[in-house]
Amino acid sequence: MASVASTVTVPAADVYRTRLIRVTLVWVLTALVLFPVLAILGLLMRAQQGGYLQSTPPEVFYAIMTLHGLGMVGLWFVAGMAVISVLLANYVKPTTAVSWIAYGATLAGVVLLLAATLIGRLGVGWYFLYPLPFHSGGTWPPWATASLFAALAIMGVGWTVWSADLLFAIARRYRLSHALGWHYLSGATTPDVPPIIIISTVSFIGVLAGLVAAVVILVLVALEQFGSGFTNDALLIKNLTFYFGHMVVNITMYFGVAMVYEVLPAYTGRPWKTNTLVVLAWNLVLFLVMFAYLHHLYMDFAQPRWLQVTGQLSSYLISVPAAVVTIFSTLVLIYGSTMRWRLPSVMLFLGVMGWAIGGVAAVIDSTVAVNTRFHNTLWVPAHFHTYFVMGVMLMILGTVFHLVTDLSKVPERSALTKTIVGTVGLGGYGFLLMFYLAGVASVPRRYAVYPAEVAVGTTFAKVSLIFIAVLLVGALVYIWETGRRCLKAFSS
Amino acid sequence: MPQSLFIVKRMAALLVAACAITSLRAQSADPRDAPPNEERLLNTTVPDIPLTTVSGARATLSQIAHGRPLLLAFVFTRCSGVCSPFLTSWRSADRAIAHGRYLRLALSFDPRDTSTDMFTLARHHALDDNDDWTFAVGDPSDVRRLADATGFWWAWDETRQQFDHPAMLAGIRDGRLVRLLVGGSITSARLDELVREVSGEFVRSYPLPGRVSFRCVRYDPATGRTTLDWGFALLLIPIAATGIGTLVMFAAGARVRGKE
Question: Which ipTM value was assigned to this complex?
Fold first, then answer.
């Protein structure tokens, strides 16, 4: 019996979408593997602060702190980029090959970071403030510092190309004035530009500015190390470092918010249209985000006073357009709607809530008079963990679950949703509460072991271990549920 | 994108060129014209070398300090220049400040000096029976290591038959360099700052002019005013480069749309 071969022509758009989804799923799976590992590093740090693991030398604590900090900041940034690119693909066409290049650069960077911290015991913190990396006092070898900067250079190149590609994808479809929604300000409503395009344009411009700052840092540091002709100004490098670091963290938040704008309407049944308020808000964000980092330098007495005032004003003002407009709009979108409370929508909603709570704590800390007291206390990790763990992380994870459930067609189980939301909510806020209370009690941050004067910090750390364990249970259930959907989607 | 990368590369190249010019200018100067570079040395581990005190006792630096902060000066007994006035100035300033719990160490860097020579020097300054002051000599190679760690240098001047060297105090706490105080004359105010710093207190400081390239701000200790310096312009590079890059990218995007 003769067989008949048939050829099925797959449309180019479908091939492209499949490729983009595949690379996104690889990013997501990688994030799902790295996240619990990095979270356990955090657990180990709190355990040491809680009086356990006493035989562990403090330099190991600082190496873990560095890996945990850099790892989490980088992880959620790339996860945000990956998820945003697949959402953007509804409107524009990012290059999948560039995403793979960024993935390769990120993996290479991660390997170098692992070597620097776990083998070299590099303990400079996620902000690697100059000149600390070059003054180890024998705690870590010079190659560990070289690894750190090599990792930053490799990842920086990968992420710059990736961000530029995504921005160019927008540029290929929209004029700059349209991508920023300026036509809405003059009353025009066409072309219809969805909020995700405006927020992404703002975000990618911000990311590129931050990455250029990183390039300047790397050039200056390299010149000092290899040129041996001059010494860098520590204040200049600190300004550049926080310009870069604050920008990356801040923009990661905006990726999460863009996801809320794009995905939440699928559960409310109401569209989230761009309007004058949204455009004004995000254009103001683009301006203010360039100066908000200045609140990291309140302790630098040499920084001119007008820059400190600028830092406080921009930190205050930036919360209005980005946070208040989004939070208010979210509530308006949900109020009176036929809301479907599924895991993605609950996580997105809780993410906005976490962003609001963490944002208030951040605004409090960005007040110069308050910062004088709070700056080096656990209040700082309290607020950034709030808008990271209970803010952007929930937004990204909610969107990921939305995407993989849609792709895999595996139905959501109500009991597991309740388990995840309950454990993550209880564990997350319990763990954060211990940070806040310790901050109010003036317990210093970045201490491996607490001295007698702030021994109460040990108790807070011990209690937080219980909550972290609960949070981890919820995270692992989520990872299991999402992971199997990812694999099913990948194989299909 | 190629366009934005091109701009970033151009910016970086300009920066590299500017830094290279600065470096060449710095390298062309005689290093002996400038005082030691404190910024490069802070927090350096100081070698715990063995010394011989004027009493003939052998002990390491840490044993002599005995847990106390340490102020160290390099001198030599045949010095016809700054050494003696420097020690006199240090002693006078030391008497004017209230702090007491730190060790003053005068160490000879001249291999010809013996502990007896250093005893004579101590007695000349009426410091031979003062427990807070120690005069000592060490093995030349050890002294060299200590000098390198603290930025001190010397060079033999054949004409004058003297060592050319800076006058400086190195503040050391827990085996690490904390601060340098450079200059032949020590005022009580500057010594007070050094002692407070070496005792673990935070003391504001500002770098010497010409030491740091691309400074963000310039502090005038006379007026207490802070003004912007050229390095601040580097903070504008990210905004400028990204602004230009974005415009180029959207212009290129418009061309692509036009072709389609």
Answer: 0.90
Contact criterion met (CB < 8 Å) for B213 and A230: yes
Q: Is B236 contained in some domain? A: no
Name which of B20, B217, B245 is nearest A227 (Cβ-Cβ). B20
What would the 3-class secondary structure string for A52-64 be? CCCCCCHHHHHHH
> Does B49 reside within a domain?
yes
- The answer to whether residue B109 scores a pLDDT higher than 90 is yes
Tell me if A176 and B231 make a contact (CB, 8 A cut-off): no
Radius of gyration of chain A (CA): 23
Which residues in chain A have Cβ-Cβ distances shorter than 8 Å to B226? 302, 304
> What CATH number corresponds to the domain at position A279?
1.20.210.10
* A302/B22 CB distance under 8 A: no
**Could you tell me the two tokens for B117?**
């020579």
Give the separation between CA A28 and CA B147, rounded to whole angstroms.
Answer: 55
Domain residue limits at B55:
35-209
Q: Do B22 and A216 touch (CB under 8 A)?
A: no
Spell out which residues of chain A touch residue B19, defining contact as CB-CB under 8 Å: 219-220, 223, 227, 229-230
Domain of residue A35 covers 4-491
β strands within chain B, DSSP E: 50-53, 58-60, 70-75, 103-108, 133-138, 155-157, 162-164, 168-173, 176-182, 217-220, 225-228
Cβ–Cβ pairs < 8 A, chains A and B: 147
pLDDT tens-place string over residues A252-306: 999 999 999 999 999 999 999 999 999 999 999 999 999 999 999 998 888 888 9
Q: DSSP secondary-structure letter at B67?
A: T
* Nearest chain B residue (CA) to A134: B40
Which positions in chain B touch A174 (Cβ < 8 Å)?
A: 253
Count of the separate structural domains present in chain B: 1
For residue B179, is it within any domain? yes
On whether residue B232 sits in a domain, the answer given is no
The residues in B 41-80 lying below 8 A from A, measured between CB atoms, are: 42-45
Q: Are A395 and A348 in contact (CB under 8 A)?
A: yes
**DSSP code for B45:** B
CATH number at residue B39: 3.40.30.10
Domain count, chain A: 1
Phi, psi of B56 (to 5 degrees): 90, 0
**Cβ within 8 Å of A, B 4-33:** 4-5, 8, 11-12, 15-16, 19-20, 22-27
